[in-house]
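Protocol step 4 of 6: structure prediction from sequence.
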Amino acid sequence: MNPANHVAIIMDGNGRWALKKGKSRNYGHQQGLRTIEKIVNYSIKKKISYLTLFTFSSENWKRPKNEVNFLFNLVVNYFKKNLLKVIKNGIKVKIIGDKSMLAGNLRKIIKLTENKTKNNKKISVQLALNYGSKHEIINSFKIINKNKQEITNKNFEKNLYTSGFPDPDILIRTGGQKRLSNFLLWQIAYTEIFFVHKMWPDFNKNDFQKILNKFIKIKRNFGKV
């Protein structure tokens, strides 16, 4: 019986949840942010050390421009308004993904947030922004080739965005879809995966606790008997 140390979540369903209620997709993203706060706080309570949240994929650029801009502004405005609270709550924030395509104001608040929270210890929250696992894997091999290094698991993993973090014990996907959507494909080789029918804004700490309870009962062999 091992408690979860690292939980990763594909937070799917914000837009569909809002449209079913006759609201805009952007309203769904706003409500999804509230769910993030609740789950981060509950993760701290349950002594989960790492939480990785799929916030914006490298494929999400295909969405309408106004929705993309709204999502990024949501991140910027949240940290501008709540950075002191994040620091006070002991939350370390790390952004994983290709930051080069992000707007200047977003990169600026990301850098500030990472610097101000780097010494926090209660939980490490990784926000995957402009993240795509296939690109991450190819990029790692390019670095190995450029540096003329031997291709080993150790050399490969130290060039991933997640370098320094343990692999997830649990991957949760809300929204009813059963796919990985190019998220942490290398890192979840032995991760326990849970698909949840609820949309992300409806996901709550009781749903989370049920998954944690199921995880504790799983015998994880990692290839052994």
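Step 5 (inspection) to follow. Helices lie at 14-20, 25-45, 65-88, 104-117, 133-146, 153-157, 205-216.
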